[in-house]
Structure formats: structure tokens, C-alpha cells
Write a structure and sequence with these properties.
Radius of gyration: 18 Å
Shape: globular
Mean pLDDT: 91
Helix content: 25-40%
Low-confidence stretches: none
């Protein structure tokens, strides 16, 4: 589905990702892990074209490239805009109907169903600015459900969430994957990675290891990622 060929991404004089190569298979469930500053979020942004490559290429199946869904870190989303939960979730239909078009007749039912799956149907008319972080993340997952994308990219979807919310959202990710979706998720909780994600890529600007999670999360590989992080002065409490 996706082939990374010696990709590098640079911000000015700062190297975020350097000479990274690996292949993502159709229907896979992948965790992207590594120290802070290791290039995990950069990798997702490069896939969707937010960040240009300074070297290499990312080859994506054209049929998949048109059906991607990306969820950035919640801290990067402005919740001050006066929009309701309904309209936020209904944005997931835009790829289907196009911008500036009326919602289809069944839009309300579909939004209700998506919100019901994340336990938020009773909040449908609430402004998003009144929601807690966990409630808002559930709403964003409902929106992604309506996008029905073949490739789903999630950047730290569990940051600052309570355990029940993490468990519910993890179950949704598993459901998407069982439906054939390919999922790449940036994570720092290694327990979740071990329990739920069969494949992993360990980054430290370079690719330290890629493959089965059991093979990637070895003591030696983790030590290597820490050593590389210290070389560039990264803050490496998250792997």
C-alpha cells in the first residue's frame, strides 16, 4: 500500500526524518513509536503531503491516496470555532458529497449512528467548545468513521485521555482494522502497542527497527533509540 524509499524531511537546518525506508501492507495495523523529536508526527504529515520531502519518495497506491483520513494531535485543533457536534461529525461526509453541498437525506441518521458508536449521541447539538478532551476525541473518531477511509493515520490519539476512553477508542481502531482498514498510529504507551498493534516502526529520526512488535520492542532497539536521541539532544522520555 505504501512504500517509503529513503525519505528525509528537513525544517531549515533541522533534520526531522533521515533515510527512512519500509513498506506498509494493505490491511495492516502499525504503531509508530520513538523518542520525542524522532520524526513520528513528521512521517504522517509527509504521507498526506503537509510536509514536503527533501529526499526520497513515498509511493502510495493511487486508489488508496484518494481515500485517506488523518487525525492530528488534539492540541493542534482549534475548538474555538462555533460549530456543533453534529456539523463536526458530518464533515466526515464531505469527501463523499464534495464541499459546499447539502448533506444527503440520511446524513442525520448516519451522524447519530457514528456518535452512538462512540457514546456521544446525546451531545449531538452541543458546541464542540463545551466538550472535555475525551468527549471531543470521541467526536473526532465518529467523524473518521463517516469518512470510511481505506488508510487511517492517527497522531497520538490517546494523549491526556482517561482509561475508559482509551479502551473505547482502542476498540474502535480494532474494529476499523477488522473491516480491512490500514492504520498507522503514533503512540508512546508501549503497553498499548504490545497488546493491540502487531506491527511497529521504531524511529529515532532514522529507522531503528521495523516489523513485528515483538521483534521491534527489544531492549537493544530501545537503547539504540535513546542513544540516537541523546546525540541530537532530544527529550526521550517517550518511546
Amino acid at each position: 500500500m505504501i512504500k517509503f524509499e529513503n525519505i528525509s524531511v528537513t525544517y531549515g537546518n533541522h533534520v526531522a526524518v533521515e533515510d527512512v525506508s519500509f513498506d506498509v501492507q494493505d490491511g495492516g495495523l502499525y504503531a509508530i513509536i520513538g523518542p520525542n523529536g524522532a520524526g513520528k508526527s513528521t512521517l504522517l504529515k509527509a504521507i498526506i503531503g503537509i510536509l514536503p520531502l527533501t529526499k526520497g519518495a513515498i509511493n502510495i497506491d493511487p486508489a488508496i491516496a484518494a481515500h485517506m483520513a488523518y487525525l492530528p494531535q488534539q492540541s493542534n485543533i482549534d475548538r474555538s470555532f462555533p460549530i456543533s457536534v453534529f456539523d463536526t461529525v458530518a464533515m466526515g461526509l464531505w469527501q463523499e458529497i464534495g464541499p459546499f453541498q447539502n448533506y444527503p437525506p440520511d446524513a442525520t441518521d448516519r451522524v447519530h449512528q457514528a456518535l452512538n458508536e462512540v457514546g456521544m449521541s446525546s451531545y449531538i447539538n452541543r458546541p464542540i467548545g463545551t466538550l472535555s478532551g475525551g468527549q471531543f476525541q470521541r467526536v473526532l473518531f465518529a467523524r473518521m468513521s463517516l469518512q470510511n477511509a481505506d488508510l487511517i493515520l492517527l497522531d497520538e490519539p490517546f494523549n491526556n485521555l482517561d482509561e475508559p476512553t482509551i479502551e473505547d477508542l482502542t476498540n474502535i481502531i480494532m474494529k476499523w482494522n477488522k473491516a480491512g482498514k490500514t492504520i498507522l498510529t503514533v503512540l508512546h504507551d508501549l503497553d498499548i502497542v504490545r497488546d493491540c498493534f502487531p506491527q511497529a516502526a521504531l524511529l529515532a529520526r532514522h529507522l531503528v527497527a521495523f516489523g513485528s512488535t515483538e521483534d521491534v520492542l527489544t531492549v537493544d532497539n530501545i537503547r539504540t533509540s535513546y542513544r540516537l536521541a541523546r546525540q541530537w539532544g532530544g527529550i526521550n522520555q517517550h518511546v
